[in-house]
Amino acid sequence: MTLPIHLVFIINEHSRNGKFFSKKLPDIMKSYSLTYEVLKTSKDDSFKKSAIALLNSLNDSSRLIVAGGDGTLNAVITVLESLNLSTTLGYVPTGSGNDFARSHQLSFDYRQAIEQIVHQEEATILDTLVISQDDLTLNAINSFGIGLDGMVNYSLENSKNKKRLGNFSYFATILSAYFSQKSFDVTIKQNNQIMYFPEVLLIVCVNHKFFGGGIPIHPQAVPTDELVNIIIAEKVSFFELITLLLKVLINQSHLSHKKLHSFNGPACTIILDSHQYGQTDGEWIKVHGNYKIQTKKRAFWI
Q1: Which CATH code fits 6-122?
Q2: First-residue to last-residue Cα distance in the chain
Q3: pLDDT value at position 155?
Q4: CATH number of the 131-296 domain
Q5: What would the pLDDT profile of 88-120 be if each residue is shown by its tens digit?
């Protein structure tokens, strides 16, 4: 594998430490005899147009590096998918949750993170999640959640706590969202089986063990096995919820609880009659209808 001579950074300065990273980058790059360029994210159409032009211009001598949170990495992958590009990605975690970085033991030291990307000779091939509904396609590097998980992310997005996201902030928001989230019914089709759950608080499809800013929701999940890991939480009392959260924190034994169901397979379909909040990689969405979830391989400089 040819080492790069040009680095291309896409930086989300609205992420938790994005502006700090932007300020540090010129000094960090003095250590390398490489050229580099920076595209800063924004929510207007001009950014997407610039990103498309930039991504289409990359060649084998360039390395693409995303600096932001899980949502930023998701957004760049979504653009790559729309362009049918298999560009290998480097990642510098500057966000709030950083579950992708936690799951793959990436450095939170910016110099070390860039050093690893620059000198990585072979890419690592990982699973990502692809969520399809009619003409809509969503992507996730970490998780796709419906119900309480979506409600939590919606609440965090509309509060001042997102930039302080971690176990405590997420757990605290779970406790408050519990009283707003009504149970709902769902049907799951997987491995030629049809499973119906009449009273559910949470459905989450995960790609590795962490979500919600470092919560080990599925300790056995493997991001290279081409399997979709699903957890379904049935309606529980508030006391049972506290017990489950303590199990997650103390010894990750929560999956043995009688009201939690965990299974996996190469693909699954979620059939949802009600309207719920959902999330992909911590970014809330509205969900309703049928969703097919499967895995797709993507290369990363990790």
Answers
A1: 3.40.50.10330
A2: 14
A3: 87
A4: 2.60.200.40
A5: 999 999 998 899 999 999 999 999 999 999 999
